[in-house]
Specification:
Helices cover 28% and strands 22% of the residues. By secondary structure, it is an alpha/beta fold. The longest helix is centred in the C-terminal third of the chain and has 16 residues. The radius of gyration is 21 Å and the shape is elongated.
Length: 186
């Protein structure tokens, strides 16, 4: 009988994360009513190349389907202090997890799987690299909104609004529209 395969994206995220933590010689047993019905064994995988001072590298995992060229482009723009990996080949100790707009439940699952990671929601459209993950904020900005300010308090909203209005007023060409998204730290 020849090998059969299942695309990892069709499996539950938790199972894929468990499989990703396996080392050579380790297995995951699949059981039904207490009896083993299947075994998943770790494959020998190439580890990402890391420099001697790897603690200075920020590991970024992408939880959206990106081509290798899109991940490489992101990694190149971030610079040598970053390593960008697909979620399915990233270790459970990732520093940053880029996630497209998703349900609060999925974000909660990611938080449980990657408790030390900074989870960053991103809406991105890059026609050149064939990437399109738009969400409600991107659609609102595309419809004509000038900015999006996710503020936690009225004083923080005032700071963000003042900074945003200053930036918008500094535009010299009235025909140019610049959509601004300002987070709590930005």
């Amino acid at each position: 009988m020849s090998d059969q395969w299942v695309e990892a994206s069709q499996l539950p995220v938790e199972l894929v994360a468990l499989i990703d933590t396996l080392r050579p010689g380790e297995n995951v047993l699949i059981t039904r009513n207490g009896e083993t019905i299947a075994t998943i064994s770790a494959a020998v995988r190439e580890e990402p190349v890391r420099s001697a001072d790897s603690e200075d590298i920020t590991v970024v995992a992408t939880a959206m389907k990106l081509s290798a060229s899109a991940r490489d482009a992101l990694s190149e723009r971030l610079g040598p202090g970053y390593l960008v990996l697909d979620l399915h080949s990233a270790p459970p100790t990732v520093d940053v997890l880029l996630v497209p707009p998703a349900s609060p439940q999925l974000i909660g699952n990611f938080r449980a799987l990657y408790p030390k990671a900074r989870i960053v929601i991103t809406e991105i459209e890059d026609a050149e690299l064939g990437v399109k993950y738009e969400g409600p904020v991107r659609r609102l900005l595309d419809a004509g909104a000038e900015a999006y300010l996710p503020s936690s308090t009225i004083p923080r909203l005032a700071e963000q609004l003042d900074r945003t209005m200053t930036q918008l007023n500094q535009l010299t060409d009235g025909t140019v529209r610049q959509a601004l998204v300002s987070g709590e730290d930005g």
